[in-house]
Amino acid sequence: MIENSKIIEIPRITDPRGNLAVIEKNTLPYEVKRVYYLYDVPSDAYRGGHSHKECKEFLVALSGSFEVVLDDGTSKKRLTLNKPNKGLLIPTGIWRELENFSSGAVCLVLASQEYEEEDYIRDYDAFKASVDA
């Protein structure tokens, strides 16, 4: 359900020389098994367009901004990520689309699983059927 998606504040250490954000221990409700990032995404392009059966993800706008559209098959929610000390936790079973990337935007993703194609649902109708079942 969309309500299980939430913004998590990343612990940080502030310093006049610059801030340090730290993701460790219990920051996320899972062990991180895969890290990747999106960058140089054209402003008129979108990423995502899938859901996961088992994998949970945490998205952080390290630089710039982008919007995330979440869909649980019943309702939709649009969020803007634009702060490097806050991230979006997306549980399993949520369709996500990332769009409206600003110039220089970088989206960091911390995933609970290594890449497995069979974990993805890439067809929206198949996603709807899976949540209606």
From TrEMBL:
Gene3D superfamilies: Jelly Rolls (2.60.120.10). GO terms for molecular function: isomerase activity. Coiled coil: none annotated. Pfam families: FdtA (PF05523). It comes from Dokdonia pacifica. The keyword Calcium does not apply. Signal peptide: none annotated. Residues 4-131 form the Sugar 3,4-ketoisomerase QdtA cupin domain. It comes from the Bacteria. Keywords: Isomerase. The keyword Isomerase applies. This is Mannose-6-phosphate isomerase, cupin superfamily. Transmembrane segments: none annotated. InterPro entries: QdtA_cupin_dom, RmlC-like_jellyroll, RmlC_Cupin_sf.
